[in-house]
Structure formats: C-alpha cells, structure tokens
C-alpha cells in the first residue's frame, strides 16, 4: 500500500447556517456543528483509507464562540495521524459573517475514525506521507494527545473505582448541591 500525503485527503465542507438550525436563543445548536464535524471527518478519513470508516471518539469539542444564523461555516479537515487501522482527523471550524467580512475560529476538534473492510472488521490504512514540518508537528501532537488521554483515562478509572461516597461526602461542601437523603451517621 503506497503512503498517501495529507494533501491527498484534505477536505472542506461549507454550509450556510439557516434558521432551522437555531436554538431558542437564536444561536446555532451545538449538535448541528457536531454533525458537520462528523461528516467532514468521514469524508477526509475515507478518502485517505479508501474504505468505509466509523467514528470512534471525538476530542476537543469546546464551542468558544457562538455561531449565528446567516453565518457561513467552513470545516477544514486533514489527516493528522494514522495508526494501523485508525486515523485522527483534525478539524478547524471557521464561522464567517459575509456582510461585515469577519471570520471567527470557533473550535478545533480531533475525531478518531477506524477503517472497516468488506468483512466489517478494522482494516489497515495507508501510511501518512509527511511533506513538511507542519504535517510532522500535527502527527507528533496526535501521539502526545493519545498518550495523555490514556494516562488520564487510567488515572480517572482508578480514582472512580476507589471512590468511597460516604468518606468523600465532605468534598461536596461549597459545591452547588444539597445532600437530600438521611446519612448513616445522622
Ligand atoms: C471502532 C471499533 C471497530 C474498534 O473495535 P475494536 O474491537 O476495539 O478493534 P481493535 O482493537 O482492532 O481497534 C481498532 C483500532 O481502533 C482504535 N481504538 C479502539 N478504541 C478506541 C478509542 N476508544 N479511542 C481511540 N481509538 C480507539 C484502536 O487503537 C485501533 O487502532 P490501530 O489499529 O490504529 O492501532 C468498534 O469499537 C466499533 O465498531 N465501534 C462502533 C463505531 C461506530 O459505529 N461509530 C458510529 C457511531 S454510532
């Protein structure tokens, strides 16, 4: 299988934000943007893999700025990293107000997808041809992100499985909740 460059599968999806996409406050629903992120990630991943792909996880979905009805939203997707059967697609979301010609970077998300073969099993994807330092930086960042995610997941899982509710109830003090059941020592 020949390596494929980042350029080979780079994809952009531009969509007009119509009133049907808005919430009661007049801003665009986060779910609409998530759906567009998933679509452009699929486009980019399946082009690189030459196969059907499925979404495994989405990282970094922080909506930093609201998107308005009438904005043109462009989602720029490129392969940041490939494993054996998985790919990480980086997606930069830009909202453009065509009347005052301003552009806002609303978020950058990272979608992990897995390529599937005809038997519906994960299938090997081509290696990524890194053509410049930016391509290499994104690949290295994805490795770091994956390492930190695994470390964080292990630490979180350990903390959760060891969490004794009775002994930790004191930590709720100062938080905006009320213990509404009768405790054993009460
Ligand atoms: C994705 C899926 C095929 C992985 O199955 P699996 O039995 O874990 O398969 P494997 O162990 O062979 O892993 C396949 C790849 O997925 C990666 N992977 C699995 N779980 C992952 C996770 N939570 N986050 C990131 N990558 C993950 C593995 O690291 C591996 O990557 P690599 O081949 O590049 O090393 C399976 O979980 C699946 O089908 N999920 C449903 C996906 C779907 O339907 N999405 C649409 C949303 S409804």
TrEMBL record:
One Pfam family, short name: 4HBT
SUPFAM superfamilies according to UniProt: Thioesterase/thiol ester dehydrase-isomerase
Sorted UniProt keywords: Hydrolase
Organism per entry: Dyadobacter linearis
Family of this protein: Belongs to the acyl coenzyme A hydrolase family.
Coiled-coil zones: none
InterPro entries: Cytosol_ACT (IPR040170), HOTDOG_ACOT (IPR033120), HotDog_dom_sf (IPR029069), Thioestr_dom (IPR006683)
Chain ranges passing through the membrane: none
The name this protein goes by in its record: HotDog ACOT-type domain-containing protein
Superkingdom as given in the UniProt entry: Bacteria
HotDog ACOT-type domain location: 7-119
PROSITE patterns named in the record: HOTDOG_ACOT
């Amino acid at each position: 299988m020949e390596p494929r460059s980042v350029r080979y599968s780079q994809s952009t999806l531009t969509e007009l934000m119509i009133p049907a996409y808005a919430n009661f406050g007049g801003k665009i629903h986060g779910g609409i943007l998530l759906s567009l992120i998933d679509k452009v990630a699929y486009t980019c991943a399946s082009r690189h893999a030459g196969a059907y792909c499925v979404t495994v996880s989405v990282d970094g979905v922080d909506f930093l700025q609201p998107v308005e009805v009438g904005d043109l939203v462009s989602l720029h997707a490129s392969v940041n990293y490939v494993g054996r059967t998985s790919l990480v697609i980086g997606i930069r979301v830009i909202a453009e107000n065509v009347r005052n010609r301003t552009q806002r970077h609303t978020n950058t998300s990272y979608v992990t997808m897995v390529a599937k073969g005809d038997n519906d099993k994960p299938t090997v994807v081509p290696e990524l041809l890194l053509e410049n330092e930016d391509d290499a930086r994104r690949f290295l960042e994805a490795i770091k992100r994956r390492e930190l995610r695994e470390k964080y997941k292990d630490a979180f899982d350990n903390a959760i499985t060891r969490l004794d509710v009775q002994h930790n109830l004191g930590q709720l003090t100062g938080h905006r909740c009320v213990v509404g059941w009768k405790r054993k020592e009460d």
